[in-house]
Amino acid sequence: MHVPDGFINAPVSAAAGVVAAGAVAVSLRGARRELDERTAPLAGLVAAFIFAVQMLNFPVAAGTSGHLLGGALAAILVGPYTGVLCVTVVLLMQGILFADGGLTALGVNVLDMGITTTVVAYALFRGLLGVLPRTRRSVTGASFVAALVSVPAAACVFTLIYWIGGTTDIPIGKVFTAMAGVHVLIGIGEAVITALTVGAVIAVRPDLVHGARGLTSSLKLRIDGELVDAPAPAPAQAAPAAARSHRRIWAAGLVTALVLAGFVSYYASSSPDGLEKVAADQGIDKKTEEHAAKDSPLADYGVKDVSDARISGGLAGVIGVAATVVVGSGVFYVVRRRRTPDAPADPTRDTESV
Predict the structure, then answer these.
(1) All domains in the chain, ordered by first residue
(2) 88 with 107: CB under 8 angstroms?
(3) Pairwise CA distance, residues 313 & 220, whole Å
């Protein structure tokens, strides 16, 4: 759903940029409370993983594909404020390095793909957890529903922005019907990817999932037929094991992202995504402008002067993942360092999952 230059006029694009910049500023402050010494590296990895999975377009209808937006996944894994920053980093990397998503439309894309998906998904996710049993399955199920709803919500926001500042005169009813219809289908794919990823992390390290905090309790032991609380491990003993586990999670996630972007992406659907298809069918793309980074060595997710499509796309994907994890980790490290000394600690850090 990357909006290119030329879809939205300059005044509305500028206004969207101001709103997006304000939301990012708020998120930078909010992320200080969400990040700590273990979740800051995870946030950089989440950004890189979203970048990688966005390269995997999946078919949703004849001649149409979709890809992960990632707002729901980021918000549930690392928190809503940090989630906005994760998607923003991805959009910056895509726009600057890969000519994907217009630079003048960056504010529109951050507002639509980053802020809308994250806010809608996390609000719905927390609402569902408030009425569901507090279990891992509830977290996974709520993740599915939140991700599913977040995609058509983003499609509706794009339609609203287009209604206000679209550069072509297309009946807004047609745009809304087309965008909502195809993005409900894309939302199903988003929901599956989000639920599987959240479920996989919860199964290994539930304490690292922001949306699962509070669903942990002390480990139970059965003694003489009775369940009793197990003694908590001493901090000096628990810390090294937790650090090793955290490093394994980070390494496994990075390898997964590299494989997806460097190898699996070659087999992704080549059909236009939902927005591209609707734009072509409805005539929204009549005034599309060339991307300012069209001559980038990595434009269109290929390495310039590498003729083999498989190698070119794979190298571009690996470079993108590496760049995103470096930039994202740097941003979150700085945000973490600026965390206020009296920021509340997470009470679930030293407990085992039930």
Answers:
(1) 10-213+255-337 (1.10.1760.20)
(2) no
(3) 50
